[in-house]
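In practice, a research group might receive sequence data for several interacting partners and want a quick structural hypothesis before committing to experiments. The following worked case mirrors that situation: the sequences arrive first, and a predicted assembly follows.
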Amino acid sequence: MSFLYVTKKLLSAFLTLVAIVIFNFFLFRVVDRDPLAKYRGRSKLSIAQRELMIERLGLNGSKWQQFITYIKSTAQLDFGRSFDSTRPVLREIGDRLPATLLLVGISTILTILIGVYIGARAGWQRGSRFDRVSTSATMVLYATPEFFFGMLLLAFIAGRTGWFPAGGLRDVGADTSGFASILDRAHHLVLPSLTLTLGYLGSYSLIMRTSMLETLGEDYLTTARAKGLRDRDVMMRHAVPNALLPSVSFIAISFGFVIGGAITTETVFSYPGLGLATADAIRNTDLPMLQALFLVASAAVIIFNLLADLTYGLLDPRIGRAK
Amino acid sequence: MNKNLFKILVALVVGFAALAVSTSTSVSAEGELSFTVGVTQDIDSLNVTVGYLVIDYEIWNLTLPSVTSKAASDFSILPYMAESWTGSDDGLTWTYKLRSDLKWSDGEPMTADDVVYTITRSVEEGWWNHTPVTGNLTATATDAQTLVVTSSVPDPKLPILDVYIVPKHIYEKISAEELPNYLADDNVSGGPFQIVERKEGEFIRLVQNPNWFGKEPAIEQLIFRTFETAEAQYNALKAGDLDAIDDVPGKIFTSLAAGDEPNILGVAGNQGSFSELAMNTSCPTGIGDGHVALKDPNVRRAINWAIDRQLLVDKVLNGFGKPSVSISPSANPAFDYQIAADQTYSYDPAKANLLLDEAGWKDTNGDGVRDKDGVELKLRYFDRSVGDAAATTPFITGFLKDVGIATDVKTFDEDSLASLQAKSQFDLYTWGWSPFADPDTMLSYFTTSAVPTDPEVGGYNDGNWCNAEYDALYAKQNVELDPAKRADMIQQMHQIFANDGPYAVLYKYDNLQAFRSDRWQNFVRQPAEIGPIMFTQTSSAYLDLEPISGDASSGGDTNTVVIVVIAIAVIGGVLTLVRSRRKKSADDRA
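A structural hypothesis for the assembly, expressed as tokens:
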């Protein structure tokens, strides 16, 4: 991988991020939202109180001054205060991030493992019963919105059987510490992560199947067979690694979306992660929160895209040398 | 990826799931006697000078004391901090004798000084949850247990003194400028419970206050868990994760009422909560930009005649409520507008059309929308993104369209809508109220002095309505000590409000709540027989609830089940692994 290739990719990622930071400022100022709406018509704010709050929200001064303040504070990861809770946005996001990383991270890994397996096998055994059944099933999964799975699981598994909790992150108030606490979290994760896994599975499986089909006619597979390798080895050692290549960028981008959370799934299960924070911020028109969530989600996608590009360069030396 | 990997994965998932299943029972077996309530509303603020949501009041009722309390049955006065009280002959001065054993949860003494501090500061700084009661009061403490409260005018609310008393030793450290930002996270309590943990958007956990001086609750730990959807919350109740829920969807409640779930008790309680369509009447002393048509009482009356309230109750509330044409100023239905149904607004679009015609609003260009002097009768219609607005709006806009009134609907979050109301920049908007026990506060919202005159400050009079006759009656009832005379004045105010007022009140709705009746008993309603159990004026039901013996926290057998489930999962996982390894070895040998 050439130095020029890496530099170009880094620069491009940096510039995209800068563009998003700038766009972010103007995007959320288009919305006409009274930052002190929470206090109107209730506790009468004195002029001093009002000025203090406006200053804390970074909304004093002209638009240009606000922009400079915004750039400076964003560079220091200070995203201001939530209109709704009045707590610092970074703290709000920090509180919610681990829950989302856990949920979406586990679901993504499960989806990749299962999806790649199903897709690879279906592609390899094209036309077989496994291929027909799995392709139909994954098409259905792909076409169904994930919150629908969530609602089914909620009603039929949580509500009817009581095997898994209907929502939340933990068993509140129970005496949990150490391993019990981990198990408690795991218990609450089952249904939301199953929902997300079902929701994501279709796309991974279908992409892997298509890549696999593309590699089927390649000469190196014929050569491998000619060398007398077993069918399974031809698939695992020669076909799958090559078919995985196009999936790398898709997987990397998917990890980028991990940070963005799973808005509908977290909402259905009242799972307090970034997805639910986003839904709440939209409902409350909490612009500082939305601004920061948008930025964090975009930055995650950019960073993972960059990683995908760099990994691709490593995996396929032709790309790193090109241009 | 190979078959073995897949099997390992399956084994892990099965093991993980089995372990997870086992967790809930073992964990809950170790807990204290908890009562967990599911709510769909997150706390707005624990700061008593800022918060305004029903859930906020529930927490304050449980953690902040008041000088006197109210009976669950009929809101009559009960001792709280004060154990006795005497009034002066003119009824203006009341002397309260406080209990001598009062302490805040942090061990600091709770004295008459705390009360004096609360009353004085609330008046000085205009604390919005306090001034309806304290606005006309001054207080002094002659000693730690003797409180003297003087009203500047005869006050029919006294001797009931039910405002939240804040701990002076905490609040005196917070300046007036800082107070709106104060998160009230010191967790100092003077009520039966104290907050020990809170995760925003997730839960708030309270335990018994060790220094509580009243009736000892059976509940040791009280948890309010926030759910995003009422359906998720209901499923959690069915699964046994919750003991009670508020805000049960009407359709689910119908099946509960039919006895479909034998272990769940549904309670439809009414404490005066109502929803309305507010109209901007553009009071001359106010601000804003209300539509000119709404200044005419006949147009407002026409809107009242155009609405089919019974249909709304049937379709939006699934029958759990009743049509209403005036506000409910009190949780006590005795203060409601006592008028026969055939003598007030009913669904009569023909009458609405006639009134609009007479007011000069006619459809001159045949586009289906009335107009007058070149101005179309097209009204900005704002609703909020929570509550029943999404369900009522299509009906109401349809009713209005039927009589030639066009609407431009926009939906806002509650804070933004309240902000527009503070500026009186709307024509129509939907909102709802839950009144206090004394009617004075709700009645005060419609006086001219409550009309917003400064957008930065706002005002409660959300119809931007002023009526001198109403104001005069309000002032009279506010100082009338004879309950019968006062009730009569309030009926006259209803008549003015319904005939001329800024609201098309839609209905009174029931609070739909559900409880695990297989675990708990002694559900006390407030007010008696008709009211809800939770989210009431004093939230006293938590002190009355008793566990059904033998059910709570019995975890002995579940541990055995847990061990068996874990053992099966682990053995299953190991067997799967061993089998796949053997198969692999056999493949390799082949």
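Before designing any experiment, note the following. The mean pLDDT of chain A is 81. The radius of gyration of chain A is 24 Å.
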